[in-house]
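quick one before i forget lol
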Amino acid sequence: MQAILGNPVVVLCGETGSGKTTQVGQFLWEAGFGDASSDNPGMVAITQPRRVAALSTSARVRNELGLAADSSLVAHRIRYSTTASPDTKLVFMTDGVLLRELAADFLLTKYSVVVVDEAHERGVNTDVLIGVLSRVAKLREKQWREGREGAKVRPPPLRLVIMSATLRVSDFAENPTLFSTPPPVLHISARQHPVTVHFARRTQHDYLAQAYKKVARIHARLPPGGVLVFCTGQNEIVSLCKRLEKKFGAKAIAARKERVDAKLRGKVEVSDDLEAEDVELGADKDLAADVDDGVYEDDEEGLESDEDMDDEAFQGLDMEEDVDEPLHVLPLYSLLATERQMQVFAEPPAGHRLVVVATNVAETAITIPNIKYVVDTGRAKERKFDHASGIQSFEVDWISKASAAQRAGRAGRTGPGHCYRLYSSAVFEQHFDQFAKPEILRMPIEGIVLTMKGMNIDAVANFPFPTPPDRDALRRAEKTLVNLGALEASEATSRVGGKITPLGQSMALFPLSPRFAKMIVAGQQHGCLPYVVAIVCALSVGDPFIREANLGDDDEVEPDADKPLSRAEIQHIRDPEIRAKEERKALRKTFYQVQQRHAALGKGSSDVFKFLSAVGAYEYAGASDAFCDSNFLRIKAMQEIHKLRQQISRIVQMTFPGVDAGFVPKLAPPNETQLKVLRQLLTAAFIDQVAIRKDLVDKTSNLSFAKVASTRGVAYRAFGIDEDLFIHPSSNLFHSSPPEFIVFNELHRTHKVWLKTITKVNPAWLPVLGRPMCTFSKPVETPAQALAAKAASNASAGTDSRTIIVVPRFGPGVGIELKPVQMTQKLVGGRWVLQ
């Protein structure tokens, strides 16, 4: 507290377990911050990188202070939800929420101190937030001093506390661009119990099977205590949870006990000549041999011995049959419903061992109570982005050494713990980087550039980033914003630092990707705005449909398989395995029917219309979970879309008061004119992401896809990408004849580069919607077009404008030639200029 009171900026470095997340805010409150009668009356803001962390820490602090669960003295502010009130003193919020607030109140006059937690994660929002706050703190202090000298009331100086869980604080403390005077760095020792780290003898390729083995061994041989398993994504987590629940869940344990009891009863029946006490003794001996074999033996060598097993996947892993204590298995990942995420903080049922299978969301941002054992696969799934081509890929890769240390630290919060690393020490030393690369170097940055431009930060290249982005990445981001009309073209094409346009100012008001924000601003025609809001909300949240692969057992359904049986026929099947198989076939058939029903909107001209159909039907059904289940929709995604629609509709009403664009709970299906306008808006939003059928681009080859019935194997080309692109099989357009021009939302690389979330484009729209990306020939004359142009010119004779025919070329460089179009020229300074 002395450091914070004596310095405008303080860096607090405290290992996991030091209590910084829950205690620093309380210390500030006790020191008078947030008290209206003190020298620092503004609220205490504590930012978190994730919503679940903001929710859980606010609840924990309320509990520690003895406040009621509904008290607003300690509140949270996350997207769509806030408990803050005029009485609030401490508020936990996501960094994105505070960044949006800065756009409206740059000096953050409501706050006396901002604590940026988990700064070591180096998220884009956190990095930008620290850079902006470094300037806000200076400005607040300057204005306060000027006000004091001039007897004016100004907010007191803003204090900034940057908290990191790793020792890598040089990016903040030793960055002269960020802080001209290095801030003091306080190292807080952790209240951490010793954690014994065990490396695997060999690094197995199938780490998921190894994780299952390790949990089974821990459960059978080691004392009570929760287990935290780190996996890479939802599919892995669901798979491992199902396997553990099937083997060690309460139902499985009860069924196993019943089988053992039945077996014993059978022994009594067939051994009439044995004495009762002989049977009982024999039974006890048999059970003891099964149950006590290794149970609760704290034998590390015994735990490591399973590394020599060479079983495939989960086959042959049914060890430790007779463990009596069931497992309470819980998943934890970002797409999980908030209510289910919060279950990991509750006490497990009596007599159960807690097992949480999580992504890296459990690495630092939250603390799960009573974890004694950590199983670390050493991997994480990362979205990697190629700034040059715009191609994204999801790759499972090794984590950093710093992340591995954070994962291990989860085991030492309540007592001595153990961390079992499913990789060798040699792999750890040779293949693990010391720290992860900051997100700003890995992700598209046009959104953050537009946000900063909206704050009147024109020279983004000179902004005090903790780690500055690559200048080429900045230049490409600004070029994208120029193509969208958000920045002025003249300056951005010559150097980094283009000025924001009025359109860009309007776009910056929305907490959306610049492309989606442009659709909102431009979508006020033909009554399309409610549909545009629904579309951009669905695209922002992501595909709401459950993936076909998650239905399971897709290999059972062959192209020539028999027609699935009816529900009544399935119920009469006695064999449980056959009945389960037929139920899965029927489920898959229903899945296809639902997909076709929603894809019918717009006659398959855009994948986006399938999302629009789902959102509209969901709202008509009362936004019920039952509708999501029957339509194979992710409940959490649909709830997010619903809340985001409400939020964006409110912003539209405030931004464009004259527009009738309130929240429309129930949307009628759009008509043909509206569908065409929506496709044009999508084209304008993704105008620099046009893909052209390869046979139209490569005139020298003998390719011809004009009469092909399906897009399977049909290659496309996009500007700036020197490889073939293919429409993803999940697209509505995959089974139709390949269109000449499309726009795409994303490029994903697997064994091919896939075009995802695509929309069919009329090439005649491109010269109008993509004017910054077009060049035009001198006026040309063709027999038919010359007559039309001549008639139009005669009509405008004697004026300073004329109608001509030109040939547009779309795209950078030479571009691709489009069909001639009729345009208007105006006489300006003695020269004819295209309008």
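fyi The radius of gyration is 31 Å.
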